[in-house]
Amino acid sequence: MVEPRVLKGFRDYPPALMIPRERLMETARQVFRSYGFAPIDTPALELTEVLLAKVEDGAEINKQLYRFKDAGGRDVALRFDLTVPLARFAAQHYIELGLPFRRYHLGTVWRGETPQAGRFREFMQCDFDTIGTLSNAADVEIALVINDLITALGFDRFEIRVNNRLVLNGLLAQLGLEENTSALLRSLDKLAKIGRDKVIAEMQTEAAVTSDQAAQVIALAETTGSNAVILDQLNRRFEDNEGVRKGVKNLREMVDVFRTSGVPDGRLRVDLSICRGLDYYTGTVYETFLLDKPDIGSVCSGGRYDNLAGSFTRQALPGVGASLGLDRLIAAMETLELLPKTTTTAPVLVFQLDASRYGDYQRMARTLRTAGIGTEVYPEAKKLGQQFQYAERRGSKIALIAGGNEFAQGTWNIKILATTEQTPVSEADVVATVQKLLA
Amino acid sequence: MVEPRVLKGFRDYPPALMIPRERLMETARQVFRSYGFAPIDTPALELTEVLLAKVEDGAEINKQLYRFKDAGGRDVALRFDLTVPLARFAAQHYIELGLPFRRYHLGTVWRGETPQAGRFREFMQCDFDTIGTLSNAADVEIALVINDLITALGFDRFEIRVNNRLVLNGLLAQLGLEENTSALLRSLDKLAKIGRDKVIAEMQTEAAVTSDQAAQVIALAETTGSNAVILDQLNRRFEDNEGVRKGVKNLREMVDVFRTSGVPDGRLRVDLSICRGLDYYTGTVYETFLLDKPDIGSVCSGGRYDNLAGSFTRQALPGVGASLGLDRLIAAMETLELLPKTTTTAPVLVFQLDASRYGDYQRMARTLRTAGIGTEVYPEAKKLGQQFQYAERRGSKIALIAGGNEFAQGTWNIKILATTEQTPVSEADVVATVQKLLA
């Protein structure tokens, strides 16, 4: 006998976790598809050489890889993100795919991190990108997708915060700090988390700038006001900086398209403190905050990059995209009580009183299923109490109960499980009644 | 520069493969849910000890494992099926899950087989099972799910062939061949594939039976006639064999429930040659054949087992389930030309003629998306020819085209891409017109 257990840092998804997860993933897919983003998938296992093609030797991710030699002696590893596989995929297939190319990818990734509360070694990523175009229209569209995505997932109160790396670079150039860009942006990225003073201290040690210079960077990042006010101010301040003016123009176009295309006001906010820590990004950057749960951080983030697949091909593949933080979002929905508590996928449970009438139970269930109503039939003719217990445990909403008397009269007892109400309904009226009760 | 490539035996899924795949998976999920089957997921990586808990030392699967030591020195492997994970999962969680428990699981599995045409080392399994009940109602329901599943996937002409191991065991007992059951059923399982003579020869060498005994086994398996005729004949022949009578009773109940619950005639066929090779099955066994593509073999197979998780728990967990052959089915649909040729998920493409009107293009797209119509906006204001080429490549159905004149008049040109037809339509009528054209 082997003790049944999972590996440390891994977890099972029982129905209570998997039902909302699947629903969210399906909603996300629908939104992506509605914009013409197409699904792709790539192998979980790749050559280590491919996965590490653009990773520096000492990088953290290097130590986190699930890496081994396969039976053929090849050095292989489980993918740790979906970006490297996209780069490899795009380099290999861009000719037959045709550019521009919009793709989404929901896939599992693995990282051998030290497990922490709420962090797992196996998790799902949910990425969407448009590659092969420099057009700002693609950047605007990614923000529109984020808006539809978070709306479709059931949120109304959220904010997509956008910035453009060109604006930040312009400021750093004005201060003579171009060379420290990476270190400064990595520190600035922590502003919301660790606060002004700590960021200034870190910039001094990590990027070798004066406290005055650090304060100026932060002052720009903290510029407040309406989108129009912030953008106008930038244009005045950086009148002769082409990069900043391009960044401002792109942000302004995004703001305009949001208005023209009818997105509710307030969803898009220019926020100069958003910078994303990665060197990778070169233009627009996005983060998305739930206004009722800002402490969980951004639930959908991304940006524009100049060159996706430089490690694999000479073909320049610029692009723009974002990633939905599925697990973070589910955790937020759980605390906000936005997740229905159920472990069944079918709201109706047909009780089984008489095993010899199983065909009739399934006939009724079939009628309901055909009307689009998920319907379980209890699989054994057990005691009523046990069937009620099952219904309660599963979170079923409605029970249909019929025995000899009901079959003789052509009726079904319909019971709303949260109450003690029970009503006999003639067979022909069952579907309509159940539909009304579930509405 | 690293050469972009995938491992031997692995493959990418570009949109042309992934779009139908995702659609099939979603359809399957919907059918499972409509019966109250609930989704679960388990880790891709497990302790090797767990995955091999019920595998014999010399077994083929042992050699096919992707197995390695993780950073913590643990002996781990990628799952090679979803049955062992279900057994482990059920043993670990059956108390909080409550029994009976219906689950489905769509998941990737890995086997380091020698790659052959159409066989991959990474593939998707799609399993559904009811565990924790001995009731034949669960067996009947699995067949009903198969029927709804194959129907929902777009097939009308198919047959679920069922048998019961109790019937086969009864025959073997009558012939005094109980001890050779495993070897005989493994040979019998090949009847459709290699034919009568070869099966007889194999039974003689593998199960040490006479050619006469082998012929008797096959004669029973080849019994033909209506379901009722076959079942009546069995009852007469095995009058005093309790096992056979129970098997017949269960099959008869399935036939009856199919009729009572209104499944079209001919979908369920008692076929005594169906036996499934695995020792694992103890009762009902299922296979499913597409009548227009019988050569690809069964597209959905399974059966009843006595003890799912004996390697992990003393708790008896009987169950019944089946597995949908997703890849096989997609291949069949491809040859039968049942798969739409498209690499976009959105039937409508809004052309971009004037970059400064991008907000208006997205506004129209938004209106269509809100009406449930997937709509792409071409991401750059490129030449018309290039946008048409893109539409053709993607398999878009309808183009919406508007420039200065159209905006001045408040109209959109609607073009059906398969034809040369192009009609100007006033903005307010676009949704209705597109809906009509797509219907």
Plain-language structure description:
The structure is a homodimer of 439-residue chains. With 439 residues, the first copy, chain A, is of the alpha+beta class. In chain A, 42% of the residues lie in helices and 19% in strands. The first copy, chain A, is built from 17 helices and 16 strands. Chain A has helices at 15-34, 48-51, 60-64, 83-97, 136-152, 165-174, 181-188, 191-194, 196-207, 211-221, 227-237, 242-260, 326-335, 358-370, 384-394, 404-409, 430-438; strands at residues 38-39, 45-47, 67-69, 75-78, 101-110, 122-131, 158-164, 268-270, 281-290, 300-305, 319-324, 348-350, 375-377, 398-401, 411-416, 422-426. An eight-stranded mixed β-sheet of chain A has the order 1-5-6-11-10-9-7-8. In chain A, helix 6 packs antiparallel against helix 12 (242-260) and helix 9 (196-207) packs across helix 10. Chain A is elongated. The mean pLDDT of chain A is 93. Chains A and B meet through helix 1, strand 1, strand 2, helix 4 and strand 5 of A and helix 1, strand 1, strand 2, helix 4 and strand 5 of B.
